[in-house]
Amino acid sequence: MGKTIAEKIFDAHFVDKPADDINVIRLDAVFCHEITTPVAINDLVKRNKDKVFDPEKIKAVIDHVTPAKDSKTALQGKILRKWAARHNIVDFFDIGRNGICHAIFPEKGFVRPGSTIIMGDSHTCTYGAFGAFAAGVGTTDLEVGILKGVCAFKHPETIKVIISGTMQSGVFAKDVILSIIERIGVNGATNKVIEFTGPVVDSMSMEERMTICNMAVEAGGTCGICYPDMATVEYLWEFIKDKYSTKKTALNLFMQLVSDCDAKYDIVINHDITHLTPQITDGYKPDNVKPVSEMEGIKVDQVYIGSCTNGRIEDLRVAARVLEGKQISSLVRGIVSPATPKVYSMALDEKILKIFLDAGFCITNPTCGACLGMSNGVLAEGEVCVATTNRNFNGRMGKNSMLHLASPATAAATAIAGHITNSKLFVADNK
Amino acid sequence: MKNFSGRALFLDRADINTDEIIPARYLTEVSKTALKPYLLEGLKLERFDPKVDLDNKKVIITRDNFGCGSSREHAAWALEVNGINLVIAESFARIFKQNMFNCGMLAVEMPVKTIDYLFSMRGNGCIVIKTDFIKSVFLVKIKNQKEELDFSISGFNRALINAGGWVEYADLNY
Prior knowledge:
Oligomer: heterodimer
Strand content of chain B: 15-25%
Mean pLDDT of chain A: 97
Distance between the termini of chain A: 41 Å
Order of helices and strands of chain B: EHHEHEHEHEEEHH
Radius of gyration of chain A: 21 Å
CATH architecture of the largest domain in chain A: 2-Layer Sandwich
Number of domains of chain A: 2
Largest sheet of chain A: 5 strands, parallel
Shape of chain A: globular
Structural class of chain B: alpha/beta
Strand order of the largest sheet of chain B: 4-3-2-1-5-6-7
CATH architecture of chain B: Alpha-Beta Barrel
Largest interface: A-B, 57 and 45 residues
Distance between the termini of chain B: 22 Å
Strand order of the largest sheet of chain A: 5-4-3-6-7
Number of strands of chain B: 7
Low-confidence stretches of chain B: none
Number of helices of chain B: 7
CATH class of chain B: Alpha Beta
CATH superfamily of the largest domain in chain A: Aconitase, domain 3
CATH topology of chain B: Aconitase, domain 4
Helix content of chain B: 25-40%
């Protein structure tokens, strides 16, 4: 019987099998941020176990609330900062150099095909875009990861989603993943890995694959995962070129991870996106998804472009194409948060930020910010926002507010119109 | 071992997420006890008021996919610091369920018809669950009525509870 990519990664990292369905695996990296890590740090100190399994394999960032908004968030930053310093964690990203974890860690080359990663953050599944097994965990799993470099997981049963067809103009990776979540449901992939494959994924950039894998958890998935290919090698080349003589050598090695053709899957889903139109969520569950046209006209108070789902340079470029030469509605507050300093810098060089500014957007520093309603754009009760983020739970961006998840193109077009609408990039003549 | 017995609170909705169990605005706390007043503050449910309904409750009985969403262990901690160490549900989201066992708490899945049955009994008065962890039995009591329900959890999760949590277990074994 063949193996899936996740099974191959588990085999290569095997430590223990404490029960039939449980694997304890060795971790190649433990990523940390200032919201979920401080309690683990405090607990380790209290237990007199203030150690780290390997300072080079731990990466940390202050990203959720930065700059600190009050004494409490300042304390969270302080605990993480001092911990990183006393354990010689070199890859620690503080204000000025920090960005959203799931954007900055891949950008720094920390995510490699075949590696195992945990983080105290549910959107850790993003890193599967690189052919890694990466899972969000709670603080206790994080704490054991920091201390021992291991984590326990169920055997990785896998759902294979084969994405085929032709993506229409104005339809983006976000629309694709929303349509997949609608199909699987919010708990359809609980305890499972979702493999995203097929010609559409093959032709996607790493950024697009990250958008797809980022939302695997919204279907309950432990990890989203794509097969590594030449796009993966190209993205990582500056970080791995000393290790492999040629790109082809690296590719051949990474390709060994690809699932065997006789691998066993829980379900195989064929998802044709040829007729897919731009999508948007309605209500408080990420699987409640509709075509934007069905939501057309709903007035919004705020548009938020950013987050670990859609705050990368490609997302800003798309939004800028929609916004160029236009002004956003005077009734809408537009906020854009480039995901990392590099994204920010590229957007500056490409004059994208000027387009946002001229359109009337507020540009924030890289941060998770409003996505989880902690800072930089929290909504008032009864307000409506279209956001490029990943989760539309009741109260997510502010108590008793309403959040609609959409692509950067839809978000930008909505900001201009003042109500939910399709972007000019979408031409609906191919149905 | 923690206490897994007491009066039950019924939450009649599927997909109750971690933002509802503990809203993100409280994630700025760095101690578990600070979360105590905010448990289920984000949950909008008909005839549910956390300030009134949580009083003296030690067990939660609920529907499908409890604890979905964010990985925040604050959701399990907010239950723990309120003395609620047992949740019985049709199913759980992965991270939330693991967080509970990692903290030495008990998350038990029951078939839909058992959950339906428990919900149907709640009109008859206050329901008390008495847990025999070793025998894997819940003794369900309403007024003078008593009933035994068998439950099962995986051997690994049982070992985590016996050890006191994942930190203790990992420290012994790895």
